[in-house]
Amino acid sequence: MTEITILIAYGLLVMITILLQVMGAMTQLSMGYIMSSRDDNRGTRGMVARIERALNNSLVAMTLFAPAVLILEVLNKTNATTLLAAQVFMIARIIYLPVYALGVPAVRTLAWLAGFIATAVLYLQAL
């Protein structure tokens, strides 16, 4: 597995998160509302709302992780450290989604922090 394949896998994880969020929203909101312009901005609750927040966080993480991986590839600076950092990022994000959805705050925060630090390592390796 390379940093690029991990980036691809993370993209797929984000897509799965989108599907989970949409399917959850359909259980709490009417199909008419889902298909509308959503001008009245109804919210979801509980696990569905947590999945939506996890999705938003996952998109932010993608905006940091993807450029770091692509920069390393363009500069031909991938190495054992960058691969390990990308693996840590991916494992952390895999843990992050279900623990956030289930409302496990401390583990969620630690998973987020591990992924964030791993991303920082990628940028430092690109210098």
UniProtKB/TrEMBL annotation:
Pfam families: MAPEG. Keywords: Membrane, Transmembrane, Transmembrane helix. It is found in: Membrane. It comes from the Bacteria. Its main location: membrane. The chain crosses the membrane at residues 6-34, 54-72, 84-102, 109-126. InterPro entries: MAPEG-like_dom_sf, Membr-assoc_MAPEG. Signal peptide: none annotated. PANTHER family: BLR7753 PROTEIN, INNER MEMBRANE PROTEIN. This is MAPEG family protein.
